[in-house]
Amino acid sequence: MSRHRMCWRLGVTIDLSNGGAGVTDGDPTALRGPIAIPGEGTARKLASQVASRIEADILASGWQVGTVFGSESALRERYGVSRAVLREAIRLVEHHEVATMRRGPSGGLIVKAPQAGPLAAAMVIYLEHTGAQVEELLAVRLLLEPLAARLAADRMDEEGIQALRATLEQDQASPDDLGGSDLLHKTLGQLSRNPALRLFIDVLVELTNRYVYRPSRASRGQAAEVKRASHLAHRAIANSVIAGDTSRAEQRTVHHLEAMRDWMLSIGQRPIASTQRADVDDTGNGKQKLAETVARRIMGEMAARGAHVGDVVGSEADLLERMGVSRAVLREAVRLLEYHSVAYMRRGPGGGLVITVPDATASIQATALYLDYEEIGLADLRAVRDVIESGCLESVVRRHEDTEVAERLREAIKPVDPVASEATVGRAHHFHTEIAELSGNPVLALFLRIITTVWARHSDDLVEEGPKTQEAADAALRVHEGIAEAILAGDLPLARHRMRRHLEALDAWWQ
User: Fold this and answer.
1) Which helix (H) or strand (E) holds 5?
2) What CA–CA distances, in Å, run from 217 to 223, 247, 263?
3) pLDDT over 70 (residue 408)
4) What is the rounded CA–CA span in Å between residue 341 and residue 357?
């Protein structure tokens, strides 16, 4: 696949060589920088910048749930912004459920325990907007879910056994409802006790649902047959997990996912962006807040119209009439679209909501914060990274004769100015994100950027060590040359061996 990926139905050509508009040269440590929003220069909107600073400061202060992080006046002084900017920033912080503003004499910004739900929704928005395909989703599920089954089997306890058996009972209770098939997959993600794995599987299941559950694509009899086969597979997987049989749990998960893939591809599913969700409650009382619901409805209209980047999908007045909501709700929905770089509101004559190039930077930052809060360990981070990197290598090796692959890999391993160790470390990360982009799978690319961003956050202190950091980063760049050499030779086993040894070395350096 070319480095320019066509976004389905949005007619946008996205240059993935640097992760899309507003993303830096691939250095995950630079993901804290601005998002380019058309019409606003190269900087992210000030409110988004302030929101990110607030979230980072809450993390740095120990994430003390229930405490007052600061009053509105104190926060305005601390961040040097107007009341309007601060309040918009706080709405974004509240969207990620990092904190909430309590009004009144004893009020202020109250620190909350972050939840995975809003982060999963943000990633879903981004991947829908990029036009991720069902084949890409299933490829990543085949990487991550067998790992979840193996970890769940290894970490199983009495409480986990009860959860699995309750899931099977619920699955069997609706023999004609394909939606129940999600439960086992999400439960295995939870029982893996790996926060990154759990979050990624939730995103993958949610996205897959946009393809599967449309009655027009399969008769009732076919749906019942598929559900029965799925339930039998789920029971076999669960029994292996409960028994602690890691190998069989992993193997049965692979076979089940392969069968799911074959069925889904056989019924000719349409891309995600065209699918309308059936579980969205437009009154705001369902699974999503009203502003999030409105944001998704706007995205659905964009896709249905075949809109292109730069197109105006409607003025504020037009959108108010079409959505049937208050101005406050619409503006909050627009803020979410801007934050996730889906669209932005251009003011003045000829203005309106303008479609922009999708950028996952905001979601990546927030997800890295969440994983920090969950105190994800090196072993869990590495387990997920191993399978993602391996999947990326397999895809890129298949393209090893493509001149674009050779050009971009050679560019990624070029030596850099050794004056600043941060530059060298950033270049080392860039090699990994470049391989992910070359895989042509936006899901793999997004997940790897999240993982490397978390790693980069934890390595900040090491970067300050100077010569030691420079020596380690230079060694990493030499290893990258060997990995690139194996890729270009079409030697997947050697590429995987060198990548595995390289990641082991990185782990030792981090520890």
Assistant:
1) strand 4-7
2) 9, 35, 11
3) yes
4) 7
* pLDDT one-digit tens code per residue, 450-479: 998 888 776 654 555 455 556 666 777 789
List the structure tokens of 232. Answer: 């039998």
| ∠ CA 299-302-306, rounded to 5° | 145
Count of residues making up the chain? 511
Strand partners, 346: 352
Q: Kind of pairing, strands 99-102 and 343-346?
A: unpaired
Partners of residue 344 on adjacent β-strands: 354
361 within 8 A of 35, measured Cβ to Cβ: yes
Q: Which two tokens stand for residue 247?
A: 């190998």
The CA distance from 122 to 189, in Å, is 19
Query: What is the tens place of the pLDDT at every residue in 153-169?
Result: 999 999 999 999 999 99
> What are the backbone dihedrals phi and psi of residue 399, each rounded to the nearest 5 degrees, phi first?
-105, 20
| Domain 33-116 classification at class level | mainly alpha
CATH class of 134-270: mainly alpha
Dig out the tokens for 112 from the structure.
Answer: 């909350």
Q: What CATH number should be reported for the domain whose range is 380-510?
A: 1.20.120.530
State how far Cα 126 lies from the chain centre: 8
Give per-residue pLDDT as tens, 123-145.
887 887 787 888 999 999 999 99
Residue 319 has pLDDT above 60, yes or no: yes
Residue 331, both tokens: 């503006």
| CA gap 280, 283 in Å, rounded | 9
Q: What is the pTM of this model?
A: 0.79
Distances (CA, A) of 510 to 196, 458, 469: 19, 8, 11
Question: How far is the CA of 57 from the CAs of 11, 54, 92, 107, 501, in angstroms?
Answer: 39, 5, 15, 19, 35
Give the burial string for 313-352 (b: 16+ CB within 10 Å, else e): bbebeebbeebebeeebbbbbbbbbbbbbbbbbbeeeeeb
User: What stretch(es) of the chain map to CATH 1.20.120.530?
Assistant: 134-270, 380-510
Q: Which residues contact 367 (CB under 8 A, 6 or more apart)?
A: 119, 122, 123, 199, 450, 453
Are the C-beta atoms of residues 436 and 354 closer than 8 Å to each other?
no
Q: Which residues, 6 or more positions from 395, have their beta carbon under 8 angstroms from its beta carbon?
A: 438, 439, 440, 441, 444
Fold of the domain spanning 290-355 = Arc Repressor Mutant, subunit A (1.10.10)
Q: What single-letter DSSP state applies at residue 312?
A: B
3-state secondary structure of 194: coil
The alpha carbons of the chain give a radius of gyration, in whole angstroms, of 23
Q: How many CB atoms lie within 10 A of CB 163?
A: 17
Residue type, 228: R
CA-nearest of 148, 328, 143, 304 to 240 is 148
Closest CA to 363 of 51, 112, 81: 51
Q: Phi and psi dihedrals of 416, rounded to 5?
A: -120, 170
Instruction: Please list the residue range(s) of the chain that carry CATH number 1.10.10.10.
Output: 33-116, 290-355
Convert 32-66 to b/e letters by CB count within 10 Å (16 or more is b): bbbbbbbeeeeebbbbbbbbbbbbbebbeeebeee
